[in-house]
Amino acid sequence: MNEPHTIVVGVDGSEDGQRALVYAIRAALFRDADLVVAHAVDDAVLAGAWGVVYDPTLLQQAGEAIVEEAVGTATSMGLSPDRVHREVAMGNPAGVLAKLSESSDLVVVGRRSVRGLERLFVGSTSVGVAAQARCPVIMLSAASHVEHTGSLGRIGIGIEPNPKASGALRMAFEEAARRGASLEVVHAWQPPTVGLFGRALDAERAQELRRRDTEHVEQLVAEERSRHPGVEVTQLEVEAHPVDTLVDRSAELDLLWLGVHEGGFGVGAVVRGVMAHSRCPLALVRGCAVQGRRAGS
Asked: What is the residue-averaged pLDDT of the chain?
């Protein structure tokens, strides 16, 4: 007998947390999954600023109240009370959610909408979860058209000519098949530069590299097409910056998949850029999260 699916959602009493909660509830209903409503009492704030000391008991009680309200929302939207679970833990929010991801199929988090230089930092919790999670992470921002999610009938994935991209691509195909949606594969190509001052390659060499990259992407897509013959696929290849292209396309998608490279800083500049500006929910997946993990509606 298969184990039940489990979806974790992080809540903190904010509008962003509420947006993530509603998405996670809908995903749990779609997947017939258990829902874990989680709140982290960040131990980093206990000492406070300017010497103010916070009572951990009061913070714990506040967290429990936030979770209890979220559980009420889940049951009012149709989830059975025995399928909704509570988790209030002490620790860094990203670390708490990453730990819960080890036994989950999906983690859902919200991200506050920011402007200007703040966009460069995206949000420590969402970035931290994306970099550490052992399952796919759905990230929603205030710009995401979450109320219309599922109505467009189109899933997207940003892809690069790298064998490591095959895992996220496979999951995007599975998602499209499960929803009965079409899949848009987006490959944004930029001519590489060489040397300390970023000298452009000559046109002939650049075109040869583009041709090679295109062939690699087409091979990856062809392999997944053969496994999912019922999924309608369109491929978009443009010579443009990937962040600009993916953000532009996100307005026409129910969900955009992106692979998160492991190692280094965990979440690269392209993923961070799309996280900061995407118009639809993002499904972020590390290589280690590919096996048997799927996102919800």
From this structure: 84
Cβ atoms 98, 5 nearer than 8 A:
no
DSSP letter for each residue of 258-282: EEE--STTSS-HHHHHHHHH-SS-E
Indicate the burial class of 95 (C-beta count within 10 angstroms; 0-12, 13-18, 19 or more). middle
- Residue 88: strand, helix, or coil: strand
User: Can you list the positions of beta strands (E) in the chain?
Assistant: 6-10, 34-41, 84-90, 106-111, 137-141, 154-158, 182-189, 193-194, 199-200, 233-239, 255-260, 282-286
Q: What are 214-223's pLDDT values in tens digits?
A: 999 999 999 9
Token reading at 193? 């530069």
Annotation: CATH topology of 6-289: Rossmann fold (3.40.50)
CB atoms within 10 A of CB 146: 19
Angle among Cα 134, 77, 73 to the nearest 5 degrees reads 75
Q: What is the pTM of this model?
A: 0.86
How far apart are the C-alpha atoms of 216 and 223, rounded to whole Å? 11
At 35, list the tokens: 């829902």
List b or e across 5-43, with b for residues whose CB sees 16 or more CB atoms inside 10 angstroms. bbbbbbbbeeebbbbbbbbbbbbbbebebbbbbbbbbbe
Tens-place pLDDT, residues 129-142: 988 999 999 999 87
What distance, in Å, lies between the first and last C-alpha atoms of the chain? 23
Structure tokens at 32: 């017939």
